[in-house]
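Weekly puzzle thread! Below is a chain. First person to post its structure in token form gets bragging rights.
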Amino acid sequence: MQTNLKLQVDSILAFVTVAEEGSFSAAARKLKKSQPSISVTVQNLESDLGYNLFDRVKNKPVLTHKGKELFQASKSLIEQYQALITTADTLVRYDNKRLVIGIDPLVCCENCQSVLYSLSDRFSDLEIEVLQQPSSMLADSLDQGIINIAFGFLQPEFASKFDHIEVSQIKCAWAATPEYFSQSRQSHHTLILHNTLADLRPYSHSRYRVWKFDRFNSIIELCLQAKGLTYLPEHYLSHHFNSGRLVRVSQNEPQSVKHLMTSIFWSHNIPLTKEAAWLLGEFRKMRNH
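Winning reply:
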């Protein structure tokens, strides 16, 4: 019985990757190493253990009985190890004097800007960086440690991945020029939508022609030219409603939700600094207004 057995994490990682990928060459590509180095690493591990992990008689490496048992025991270790590496890498880039906030452009209203100004006033020595991206990209940036905290729409598939709270509802409206419907003789109306809202809001492809844009000024400009009707947060439309250049669409309105729930979300792995925690509290207050 071996009592002084020491296993290297890199050896276990190579073994698990070969088992998951089904070949030494595929594991080498995934780990960005040469195939011979992966083979030698696994062979050395087998030598240290005193038994084979793979049956090499067949075309592909097949786990032996002992290999299957070690594989099951190793998977959770590798998952924890990879989470540790991610956390350590994020902490290297994490500066208590710098806060990177990701905000979906759709939710960047006056209340949101007011909170950011208050954050700057309260923590005068804090360097604040705001990254504006669609919510799906914010989730990726948060996962990669590029941003510290995000404000936007948290899709259901990410809800279990991040800590989060619901913050507020964004009221949206359909809008068009007063003359759009009187001038439009087409059987298929044109929807001019922001990329994010085009994904969040249900509509029937058979009834509407859809144009998607990532810039609000392009959407509103086309709408003002009576090229179609749009669906945007009201804080982007209020000025045009007040001037009469756009009107709320109440008839022939496509089926849609009237409000979108926004959330603030952050990584499970990184504790919030006092500045980020304060920001979270201020966003939380927005739910009461």
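Puzzle host: Confirmed. Bonus trivia for everyone else. Residues 234 and 260 are 11 Å apart (CA to CA).
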